[in-house]
Design brief:
single chain; about 325 residues; alpha/beta; Rossmann fold; seven-stranded mixed β-sheet; globular; disordered N terminus
Length: about 325
């Protein structure tokens, strides 16, 4: 048997599943295991620390109220940075809230439509979508789709939404179209979660104008706060001109890898600067969470006993604050 075959590393999925590095990925000679895991750089978080300090000093983040806002609540799940878990959070937090008995509507405002496919809805079979709501004034209730989980509903996105940024430019009252649309169904739901695109264009502005709160997923990595300043700038502009009640209420730490000390340091640093906004529950980086969307199911359905399902159930309890479900 050749050296190439005997020394080939195990598949990455296997590493993530059991949480242990393979012997083939052991550190090279001359490097300690601590260095390879990012443990031996005492000033390795300088970039993150200075970014957090700048954000806190530059942006006026309103104080959190003592209690959670009353139902119904509208949360825009936003971060300019891509790949931080916005859609994963929108789908799985929504599912976990629905499992608690709340009526939840997920609004897919991302042209990629990943929340739509992640909840098992085939965009090719749709007559209307959020694109028609925003551009053609179609009533949003005509676009609401059921999912495979009781109490969880979806306003889907299709590829048509990719052109909405340009088409909205000459539109009358272009920033307020989503707000007007969801106002007609707000009383039917306890939570509305808006999955924003990874950009700061007119679609995201529509989400911020429609929401009461912003939930920001932040990955537990070195460049965790990259781009967050631009999002906070936009939130301040929206608050000043369109939605004075908007507030960053929730920061969710995602993609937490317990095998690295860096992940723990990032969480500690973000908590130190953003305080009670940072949820106690962290979302782990797991294979099952990444597999669930390909089956069109949230993690609480796809693998109810997994670490990802447990994390989102705890997160749902924290976000809801135990608010009683409304009657009627």
């Amino acid at each position: 048997m050749s050296d190439a075959m005997t020394n080939s590393p195990r598949p990455r999925a296997a590493l993530e599943a059991d949480g242990a590095p393979s012997p083939a990925e052991a550190p090279e000679a001359g490097r300690s295991a601590n260095e390879s895991a990012g443990l031996a750089e005492p000033d390795g978080l300088d970039h993150l620390r200075s970014a957090a300090e700048d954000l806190v000093a530059t942006h006026r983040i309103a104080a959190l109220p003592g209690e959670k806002p009353p139902l119904p609540r509208v949360l825009a799940i936003a971060n300019q940075k891509g790949g931080v878990g916005k859609t994963t959070t929108a789908v799985n937090l929504g599912a976990a809230l629905a499992e608690l008995g709340y009526r939840v509507l997920v609004v897919d405002l991302d042209p990629q439509g990943n929340a739509t496919t992640g909840l098992g809805v085939n965009a090719r079979n749709l007559d209307t979508s959020i694109y028609d709501v925003i551009l053609h004034d179609v009533p949003i209730e005509d676009c609401i789709e059921p999912t495979n989980l009781r109490n969880l509903f979806l306003v889907p996105a299709t590829i048509d939404l990719a052109g909405a940024e340009i088409e909205l430019v000459p539109a009358f009252s272009r920033e307020m179209r989503l707000r007007r649309a969801i106002g007609t169904v707000l009383s039917d739901f306890d939570f509305l979660l808006i999955d924003c695109p990874p950009s700061l264009g007119l679609l995201t502005v529509n989400a911020l104008a429609a929401a009461q709160e912003v939930a920001v997923p932040i990955q537990c990595e070195y460049y965790a706060l990259e781009g967050l300043g631009q999002l906070l700038n936009n939130i301040e502009r929206v608050r000043a001109n369109l939605n004075p009640d908007l507030n960053v209420s929730t920061i969710i730490m995602t993609m937490y890898d317990a095998r690295t000390r860096l992940a723990e340091q990032v969480v500690d640093e973000v908590r130190r600067h953003f305080g009670d906004r940072v949820c106690r529950s962290v979302v782990p980086r797991t294979v099952r969470l990444s597999e669930a969307p390909s089956f069109g199911q949230p993690i609480v359905v796809f693998d109810p006993s997994s670490r990802g399902a447990t994390a989102y159930r705890e997160l749902a309890k924290e976000v809801s604050g135990g608010a009683p479900q409304r009657v009627g």
